[in-house]
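C-alpha cells as discussed.
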C-alpha cells in the first residue's frame, strides 16, 4: 500500500503532464489555423485584384479640336508591385499629351493625362495595357476601351475665361450726359460734309466729258494661290514663335481663300472639320483631301497647341503645299473655266472682249 503523501505526489505529476499536453495541442491548432488563414487571405487578395481590374475615366463627354481634357487611369496595387502605365507612344497620333501626373494610395495607383485632340472623328482609346512587375514576373492587364464622340460646337463662355455672373440691376435714374450734344454736333457736321461732297461730285460729272470705262479684270483663284505660295517661299525664313505662327497661318489661309473664291464656301470662317466635310461633299479626290487635311491640322497645332515644328517640318509643309497646288491644277480645270464664265456673265462682258480692255 502506498502512503497518502506518495499518492498526492503522483496525482500532481499526472495532472501537470496532462496540462502540458493540452497546451501543446492548442498551440499546434492555433499555428495551423494561422497558416490556413494566411493562405486564404492571399487567395482572397488575388481574387479581389482580378475582380477589380484597371478602370478608365474621362472628365468630358466629348472632344473638341485643341480643347484640353483629362483622362484618369486607376488600378489596384500592392506594396510589392511595380506598375508601368501607358506612355505617349501608346496613344493615337491625333492626341497631344501636354501633361501627366501620378497618384497613389494604400490600395490603388492612378495617373491623370491631359490631352489636346487634333482630329475630325470620334476618339476611341483601346488597346491600352498596364504592366505589373511582381518579384521576377511581369503581368500585362488590358485597360477597358473608352469612346468619346467628336463635337464641333463652339466653346462655352466659361472656357474662354468670361464671367457668367449676372449684371447688376440698371438704376432707374440717370444724370445729364454732356457728350450728347457733342455727338449730335458731330453727326450734323458729318451730314453736311457728305452733302458737300455729293454736290461737288455731281458738278464734276456735269463738267467732265465721258471717259472710257475699264472692264474688271478676272483673276484666277489658282493663280492667286500660286502667287501667295511663291511670296511665302521668297520671304525670310521664320525664326521666332510668332513668325512661325504667321508662316503656318498664311499657308492655311491661302488654301481656305482658294476654296472660298472658287466655290463660294466660307472656308476662312469655318473650322478645319467643316472645310474637310465640304471637300467630301463636293467629291474631291482622297489625295487632295489628305493633303488639305494634313496642312490644316499642322496649322491648328502650331496656332492653338503651341507646337514648335523643326526646320525640316517647316520646309516640308511648304513642299507639301506646292504638291497640293499641282493636284488642284490638274483637278479643277473645268471648274476654273466655269468660274471665269460666271465672272464674265455677271459683269456683262461681251463674248469677244477680254477682261482688262476698255469700253468707250
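Sequence:
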Amino acid at each position: 500500500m502506498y502512503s497518502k503523501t506518495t499518492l498526492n505526489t503522483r496525482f500532481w505529476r499526472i495532472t501537470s503532464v496532462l496540462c502540458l499536453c493540452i497546451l501543446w495541442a492548442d498551440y499546434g491548432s492555433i499555428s495551423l489555423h494561422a497558416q490556413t488563414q494566411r493562405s486564404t487571405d492571399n487567395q482572397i487578395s488575388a481574387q479581389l485584384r482580378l475582380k477589380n481590374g484597371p478602370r478608365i475615366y474621362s472628365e468630358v463627354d466629348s472632344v473638341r479640336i485643341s480643347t484640353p481634357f483629362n483622362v484618369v487611369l486607376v488600378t489596384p496595387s500592392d506594396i510589392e508591385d511595380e506598375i508601368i502605365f501607358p506612355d505617349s507612344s501608346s496613344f493615337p497620333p491625333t492626341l497631344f499629351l501636354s501633361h501627366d501626373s501620378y497618384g497613389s494610395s494604400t490600395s490603388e495607383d492612378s495617373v491623370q493625362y491631359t490631352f489636346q485632340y487634333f482630329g475630325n472623328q470620334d476618339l476611341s482609346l483601346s488597346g491600352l495595357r498596364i504592366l505589373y512587375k511582381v518579384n521576377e514576373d511581369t503581368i500585362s492587364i488590358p485597360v477597358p476601351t473608352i469612346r468619346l464622340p467628336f463635337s464641333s460646337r463652339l466653346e462655352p463662355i466659361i472656357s474662354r475665361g468670361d464671367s457668367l455672373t449676372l449684371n447688376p440691376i440698371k438704376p432707374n435714374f440717370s444724370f445729364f450726359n454732356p457728350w450728347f450734344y457733342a455727338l449730335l454736333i458731330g453727326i450734323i457736321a458729318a451730314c453736311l460734309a457728305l452733302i458737300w461732297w455729293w454736290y461737288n461730285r455731281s458738278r464734276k460729272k456735269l463738267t467732265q466729258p465721258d471717259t472710257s470705262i475699264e472692264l474688271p479684270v478676272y483673276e484666277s483663284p489658282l493663280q492667286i494661290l500660286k502667287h501667295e505660295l511663291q511670296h511665302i517661299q521668297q520671304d525670310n525664313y521664320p525664326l521666332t514663335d510668332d513668325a512661325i505662327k504667321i508662316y503656318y497661318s498664311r499657308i492655311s489661309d491661302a488654301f481656305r481663300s482658294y476654296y472660298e473664291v472658287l466655290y463660294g464656301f466660307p472656308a476662312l470662317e469655318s473650322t478645319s472639320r467643316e472645310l474637310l466635310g465640304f471637300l467630301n461633299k463636293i467629291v474631291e479626290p482622297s489625295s487632295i483631301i489628305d493633303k488639305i487635311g494634313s496642312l490644316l491640322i499642322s496649322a491648328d497645332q502650331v496656332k492653338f497647341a503651341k507646337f514648335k515644328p523643326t526646320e525640316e517640318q517647316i520646309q516640308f509643309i511648304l513642299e507639301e503645299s506646292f504638291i497640293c497646288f499641282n493636284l488642284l491644277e490638274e483637278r479643277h480645270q473645268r471648274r476654273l473655266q466655269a468660274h471665269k464664265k460666271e465672272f464674265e456673265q455677271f459683269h456683262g462682258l461681251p463674248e469677244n472682249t477680254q477682261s482688262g480692255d476698255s469700253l468707250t
